[in-house]
Amino acid sequence: ETGVTQSPTHLIKTRGQQVTLRCSSQSGHNTVSWYQQALGQGPQFIFQYYREEENGRGNFPPRFSGLQFPNYSSELNVNALELDDSALYLCASSLVVAGQETQYFGPGTRLLVL
Amino acid sequence: AQKITQTQPGMFVQEKEAVTLDCTYDTSDPSYGLFWYKQPSSGEMIFLIYQGSYDQQNATEGRYSLNFQKARKSANLVISASQLGDSAMYFCAMREENYGGATNKLIFGTGTLLAVQP
Q1: Whose CA is closest to A73, among A20, A1, A37?
Q2: Minimal Cα–Cα distance from A35 to chain B, Å?
């Protein structure tokens, strides 16, 4: 148990729709990262939030956006869904101390876009 | 650019035997961290072990050890006394170590599927 939870566990959407995925971080962790894992691949970094501010972004278009809340929970929003957005979405929470941190992952949300 | 390479798509090991999962990395940064994660079929990424680039000793965590060869840029995971519950995908990942508040993103390899046979 990592203390990181995600909801929903599974989701089916159609192309063009919008989706919001949620993550509850481990208590006290001030950083949350989101990753996309396509079938048969390793996770790809989407973005990271630190103290409610975006703190870096991977090679994903602006229709991928996020929020982090004061209680360190966070959301990943994806607009105008495309078929290639079908993947496992993982969030990871961490506490950055002097540049050192270990990311602890939630169980993920499996998104299928039809 | 940073890169992680895992050349073994799949591995078999007999229960109670040791197994080594290969990982090589590429980076121009002198300070970095290397991680191994286990991903069962349920999907959750489980942190196993961490090695910092300046660590003199190889990291160990229970049955897991990391064979860190800096000159070869390799960070192989060794699992001793394999158990049936070790069957899963294993990912090697790298992160730049930084102290300036920059992004601590992880770069993952493509993974190795380990099957432990009774």
Answers
A1: A20
A2: 9
Q: What are phi and psi of A5, to 5 degrees?
A: -120, 150
Closest CA to A24 of A97, A91, A95: A91
CA distance B111 to A39: 11
Q: pLDDT tens digit string along B22-77?
A: 999 999 888 889 999 999 998 889 999 999 999 889 999 999 999 999 999 999 99
Strands B112-117 and B88-96: antiparallel
Distance CA A90, CA A60 (A): 15
How far apart CA A36 and CA B46 sit, in angstroms, is 16
Residue B29 gets which letter from DSSP?
Answer: -
Cα separation, A86 vs B49, whole angstroms: 29
β-pairing, A31-37 vs A87-94, is: antiparallel
DSSP A76-100: EEE-S--GGG-EEEEEEEE--BTTB
Chain B contact for A5, CB < 8 A?
no
Strand-pairing partners, residue A104, are: A93
Best of A37, A53, A91 to substitute, by most chain B Cβ atoms within 10 angstroms, is: A37
Instruction: Using a CB–CB cutoff of 8 Å, tell me whether A43 touches chain B.
Output: yes
Indicate the residue type of B90. Y
Tens digit of each residue's pLDDT (9 = 90 or more) over A53-100: 888 899 999 999 999 998 889 999 999 999 999 999 999 998 766 656
